[in-house]
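From the pipeline queue, job 12 of 40. The input is one protein chain; the requested action is below.

Action: predict structure.
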Amino acid sequence: MSNYFQPLDSGIVPRFAGPSTFMRLPTASPDQVDIAVVGVPFDGGTTNRPGARHGPREVRNQSSLVRRVHHVTGKSPFDLARIADCGDVSVSPFDLNGALDTIAAFFADIRRAGARPLAIGGDHLMTLPILRGLTDRPLGLIHFDAHSDTYDEFFGNRYNHGTPFRRAIEEGLLDPKRMVQIGIRGSISRADNYDFARAAGIRIVFIEELMDRGVDSVMAEARSIVGEAATYVSFDIDALDPSFAPGTGTPEIGGITTYQAQKMIRALAGLDVAGADLVEVSPPLDPSGMTALTGATLLFELLCAMAGA
């Protein structure tokens, strides 16, 4: 056992007890860790069904069911990196622009501390201020989602969960030539919804292509697109078919399975991941807790990829 932070031992403290932190890790400040697990309880960018503000708390609750050693590699990320729960960003539910500034400042502090963030959302608009705080140069992006999130506006508002990646490209936070979006599907509101993304050079892998080619082929291409430079990873839970994760605001049938999601995240191992998030878990829309448990399990997979486990 290393001297790094460790989850509580379920053989000593049962999993229904102890603190409601991610995987029952100790709490710490960003300057004490290599990877900072952070909650962003924010859904001020939601255009239809809210509830993702409750995601971080319920994902943490369900994460008590996730064990510390990866069953494929036999490794624990907690033996390879200093990892702790660094709490939540304290965002205002009443001030959208103020919330974006608060999130950006929080993640800028994480960057200055020398840690990499693993963020629990929260709606997908939160990725924009995370990127603002995280980088001053364009990053690559591997983005798992049912939606491209490169739209321009809704109801005249340019800042919502359908627009973060368009804004991030415009602000120079992402390099569109090093961006790949995987699992895109569903009916769209206008025939030109993907025009911006295509013109910018984003590689869009629609669900039909993913199913035809398979996970291994698509992820090999994704790795070649982002290359060896710093890359951000964003996983929207609605990338999954809603039969696996019904608790999300914008479900789209015909999605990926949980096993495919695990395999794709495992394929990130060895990349220069500057940070990652999992977003759009809305616990009020799934009283069973299965969506939050799925989110917690995929966050563990992301943690293993980031830590080299």
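Job complete. The mean pLDDT is 97.
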